[in-house]
Each structure stands twice: as C-alpha cells, then as structure tokens.
Hints:
- Pfam families: Hist_deacetyl.
- It comes from Ataeniobius toweri.
- Helix content is about 35%, strand content about 15%.
- The protein has helices at about 30-40, 45, 55-60, 65-75, 80-90, 100-120, 150-160, 175-185, 235-255, 280-290, 305-320, 335-350, 375-385, 435-445, 450-470, 485-495, 550-570, 585-595, 615-625, 640-655, and strands at about 1-5, 50, 120-125, 165-170, 190-195, 225-230, 255-260, 295-300, 410-415, 425, 475-480, 500-505, 520-530, 540-545, 575-580, 605-610.
- β7 (about 255-260), α10 (about 280-290) and β8 form a beta-alpha-beta unit.
Amino acid sequence: MGTALLYDEEMTKYKLLWVDAACKIEVPERLIVSYEALVRSGLSDRCISIPAREASDSEILLVHSELYLEAVKKTPYMTLEDLKEFTLQFGDVYFHPNIYHCAKLASGSALQLVDSVMTGKVRNGIALVRPPGHHSMHSAANGFCVFNNVAIAARYAKQKYGVKRVLIVDWDIHHGQGVQYCFEDDPSVLYFSWHRYEHQNFWPNLRESDYDSVGKESGAGFNINVPWNNVGMENSDYLSVFCHVLLPVAYEFCPDLVLVCAGFDSAIGDPEGEMCATPDIFAHLTHLLMNLAGGKLCAVLEGGYNLTSLAQSVCQTVQTLLGDPLPQLANLRGPCKSAVESLQCARSAHRRYWSFLKHATDPPMTDISTKHIKSAMEEEEKTEMAEEERCTEGKVWPEPPERLCPPVCSASVLPDDVACPDGLKRLSSSKDLEPLLVSKLKNRFRTAAVDGDGVTTFSRLYTLIEKLVANEIRNGLVLVPDVAAVMMCVVQDLTSDLVKRVLVVCVGKEKELDYVTTDGKVLVVQISSEDSEEQRSKYYIPVCLKKGCSDTSGFIQAVLGLLLPLGYEYNPDLVLLVRMPGSGVVDSMWQQLIGLLQGFAKGHTLVLMQVNEKACMGSTASALLGHPAPPLQDLQTPFPEDGDALERLRERLQADWKMLQTTS
Ligand SMILES: CC(O)(O)NCCCCN
Ligand SMILES: [Zn+2]
C-alpha cells in the first residue's frame, strides 16, 4: 500500500493584507516550497495524489461552535477594515476573504487523508495544508489557525470508522492548546506535545502548557506536555523524549490510528523555534511512529517558517512514509540538562497513569514545577549556551544525506532444502572466501560449521554482508544450523574489515557469549531470561527479563527504554539481530523489533536464525520487507523486578551512554 499526498494550490491563495509582526511569517510560500521540493525530488510522483475537499459544516461542528462557524462564514464578504476588526478578537491570527475557503480545504484534506488510510486505500499519508489548525479552539481562531484540522480529523475517525483510540503526536514547536482543550477529558484520544515554553515566557504563555497538565477527569493521563525551557534543542533531545516518554506510553495506549500535527518549526533555522534539530530528525520521528496502529499514520502540516528547513523536513517525512531507508544520525551526545529535567518531569507526572512509566523517579525538587528550578537551571544553561550559539535564521546546516533505495530490499541465505519466503531474493552466488579467511574459520570451528556446506554458507554470508555494506541490498535473513557459532564468526571474522561498528542484538540466550569487545567495534545487547553474572564491559549489555523474551511487556520496555537509545548513540553500520533457539519471543514483538531496528545503519539488518525456527521466517520476511508490524495487543504491566532492573541498568550505564539518561 502506498502513501497519500494531499495538496491543493488553492490553499496558497490567501495572505496577510496588513502589517502584523506576529503574523508576517505565515506566508503562502510555505506551502509552495514544500510541494515544489516534493516534486523536484521525485517524491510526489511516488505518492498517491488525493484531492482536497471542503470540510462540511457538520464536520467543522465536530470541534467548533455554531457561533464561531457562522462568524467565520461572514469573512469572505468583509471589507479590509471589517477583516481587521474581526481579527482583533483573536490572538496572533489574521483573516482574509479567501481564508474561510482555505480553512475548509485544510480540514477537508485531513478528512480525505483519514478516509484514504482507514479504508485501506493507502497505508499512510501527509496533507500539506494552510491555514494550520492546532491552536484553534471551540469558538476562537488563534496562532494562524482557523479550524482545528487534526482535532476534527480525530473526532471524524471515531465517528465514521469507530476508531477506539487515537494518538495525536504534535511535534510542532508550539503547544497545540486547541487540541489539548478538545480532548483533555477524553481517554480515547492521547495528545502528546512538546513545545518551546521557557517557563511560560514563550507564546502562547499558558500555565496549562506545562508538563503537569496531564488531562482531566477520565482523561487524566491522556495529555502529555513536554515543555522545552531552553532553545537550541538538538536531535538527541527529541529522540530521548520519544524513547523515554512518548513511545512507552504510545505502545501501552496501543492506538488504532496515529495523527501527527506535523509542524516543522521545531527544526533548525526556524525563527519561531530557534531549535537545532536537523531536518533528517523527522525521518526518524516518523519512522518511530510507523509501527503503531499497524502503520496507519496521517500527518497534517502545522507550522514551519524557515522555507529551507521546512522543505527539507517535509521531504524527510515523506521519504520515510514511502518506506525509504533512514539516514544515519551521527554524534548523538545525549540530552542536555534542561531536556533531561523536562522529560523527567513529564515521566514523573505520568507515572501514576502508565505502567510503563511506573519506575520514573521524581526530579530533585519537591515541587516538580519547572518554574522553581529556573534560577539554578538558567544560570547553568546560560553558561552552556552563549548567545551566539543560539540557533537562529543565520544558522546553517548540511543538506540531509541522500537516502538511496538498494536495488534489492531483502536477501536470504538458506540451506538448499529450505524454501525462500516470498519477496526475498535467495543469495546462492558467492565468491570464494580468501584462503586465509577459510583457514581462520577452520581453526576457529572444528565443528560441522565449516565442512563443505559450511564454507558455502560462510561465503554466501560474506557476500551478503558485502552487498549490505555496498547498499546493494537493504537487509538479509540467514538460516544456519548453529546460530551461536555463526554469530561469533560473523562478528569476529566476516565483518571486521567491512564495517566499523556492529550492533548485535541477541534475543534469548543459549549460552554465555564468550565474545566481549572493549574497542567498541561491536556492541552486544542481549535480552534473555537469565541474569549474566556481571557487567563485563561498556559494550556488552545483558538485559534480564524475569519471564524471559515471551514477556512482551518487559521486552518492549527494554527495547524502547534501552536498546533504541543505545542504538542511536552507538550509530552502527550494521545490525546483527540474532534469534537464539527457544527464545520464546512473540511473533508480533519480533516484527516490532525488526521494524524499529530499521532505524539504524540505513536499515542494514542481518537476521540470524536457527534452521529449526524456520516457522517464523514468514513474519521475519514481512518485517524485513517493510510491512508494518501488527500492534502489540493488551500489554500487561511489566514485572516490577524488570522495571526496577531496567531503571538500575540505565542509571549504571548512563555515565557511558548519555542517551540512557532519564534523571538529572
Ligand atoms: C501553527 C503554529 O503553531 O506554527 N502557529 C504558531 C503561531 C505563533 C504565534 N506567535
Ligand atoms: Zn508552530
């Protein structure tokens, strides 16, 4: 299934008709440069173009009052003076004779997108719209917004398709208070927003934008605010909040549909955000949401005022929606102090509502409101961030790297008597191994592993790895008689001269891995049921689950809160995912893991499985081919021992691995 793209140039046909410093950045060119970038890059041709339509009155009334709608209906007939007068009653927004028409098209586009996804016409999609929506309220326009496009889409999805749970992720740099007000008492809509806040000193300067607004009545716990109290936030800060706040809750919430308030003013260069995250971060934010709700994801444009970073960010988002390989993110050095403070406050405010946050620790202060921390914090941060470092318009950043699709998506190396799963390309050709390598293999394994057949297997495996590294193949599936033996061989002999860093994710444990690196060429994360006697090195991290890998709750908690942050910080060039026999990992969890690991090493994942587990080759192949993983149904509360152990492991490792930091 494909990716929908909604765009109609009619929505470029309104603009600010008078002088207003707050509104002058919201220009038609925002939409034009975004769409043109998609055309120029060839991405628009790869999408399924869906026509925009006007939202009907009844659809608009799902969120707004009749009074407000009737008033807005009159604006097309107003004189310039009337429009100015009408605008005065609202904040930081302007009206134009054609904005009502465009606002209906913007909301209608979001609804068209929901229809396309919910009917299975497409897997996911994006609507390039203006005016944006997330600030508009029941009876008020605000912050360049007239109708709340995403809030209307959420209500519409519930009403028309019986969607039970909607996750709204708002990565725009402003707080979508309109969305918060709409759903704050509604447990069927989980609203997550991060936003520039600066202890309430940034627009819209609302007390209720702080992290302690968790929702009301039955909606308590279903509103998550992460305030940024400093500018200059980077990729590390955004990914930390996804891994340690949003994703654990999103997986526990288990939405049927994901809507994204896709504002790109959170990108570097934007005059509103003054942040430093690069456009390719949106490739990863999109990717991290794509395994939820069976991949049903609708992104709707909100803000974004630097035309260069906006266009690049839109392209990064669309490319990920299309399933292209992700760019590697380099130098993730962990969240800054202020970000850790914010994520810790958000986690602790929600600890009582989400079992996946149960082990969150309180921030140092008794009163967790960030305002009281401000003095000490700001002194600290001011030194950390001298004025000139602040990210402003003058900031420059590299063009996002090309994300080339390898000619072959998934290849397999299988015993001759095992059928190749659909969609995978069987690798039979292989160049003979260097004699030196063969002798090394023989020396290493006197077992059957390197008899005639073994050498063929290894040479095919070597060829596969070469092709992964050369980006001729994206990922691979290998079935062998002895997984542990082959894993050692891959790590020690077959990759050493081909890649700089290998992330080995070992699911289950047949025996202790007798391979420990200290030079950092290999990072091993082993998730199993047995505790390993001790922590051997920074590069061998055993995660023990009380009930083993069959405990999906504990497993996903370890993946989101430990494996993902580690992987981002380590930034491997190859991921070796090893499924030890008898691991007991649940199929949907296995597919989720494969999906999430695609975020690393440009998707170069090599899955190693035992021949006797060939029954799960189908689901493995499906995940490797990029099909969305099935949702993890009714996750139980993770075992307290596991939650505690994970927290302790993070505390112990965070000195070495900054991305694990969740406590200040
Ligand atoms: C859509 C939006 O969140 O980018 N609007 C920002 C309005 C800022 C007014 N000072
Ligand atoms: Zn914004």
